[in-house]
């Protein structure tokens, strides 16, 4: 996805009826959060986990709850569900 003229990897978190999406870049040092292909959540599946230094983020808001970037947020991407599919703006 292109955001502000830059190509960014984006991931989607779906929890029940809720869906959120974020740029795959940690606000700490800009590393990708993805631990393994398509795995972004911790074992309890309640927080997004950064693969590099273990920061933990609220999957509803992207706010870092714990770690070196506590209080900073992931870049949110607006998404919606239309006809059962996750849709993002172009
Ligand atoms: S790069 Fe994510 S916590 Fe350091």
TrEMBL record:
<protein>
    <recommendedName>
        <fullName>Rieske domain-containing protein</fullName>
    </recommendedName>
</protein>
<dbReference type="InterPro" id="IPR017941">
    <property type="entry name" value="Rieske_2Fe-2S"/>
</dbReference>
<keyword id="KW-0411">Iron-sulfur</keyword>
<keyword id="KW-0408">Iron</keyword>
<dbReference type="Pfam" id="PF00355">
    <property type="entry name" value="Rieske"/>
</dbReference>
<dbReference type="InterPro" id="IPR036922">
    <property type="entry name" value="Rieske_2Fe-2S_sf"/>
</dbReference>
<dbReference type="GO" id="GO:0046872">
    <property type="term" value="F:metal ion binding"/>
</dbReference>
<feature type="domain" description="Rieske">
    <location>
        <begin position="1"/>
        <end position="88"/>
    </location>
</feature>
<dbReference type="GO" id="GO:0051537">
    <property type="term" value="F:2 iron, 2 sulfur cluster binding"/>
</dbReference>
<keyword id="KW-0001">2Fe-2S</keyword>
<keyword id="KW-0479">Metal-binding</keyword>
């Amino acid at each position: 996805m292109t955001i502000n003229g830059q190509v960014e990897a984006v991931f989607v978190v779906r929890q029940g009826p809720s869906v959120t999406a974020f740029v795959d870049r940690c606000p700490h040092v800009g590393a990708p959060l993805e631990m393994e292909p398509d795995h972004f959540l911790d074992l309890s599946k309640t927080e997004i986990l950064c693969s590099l230094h273990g920061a933990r983020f609220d999957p509803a808001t992207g706010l870092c709850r714990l770690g070196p970037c506590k209080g900073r947020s992931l870049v949110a991407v607006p998404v919606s569900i239309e006809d059962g599919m996750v849709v993002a703006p172009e």
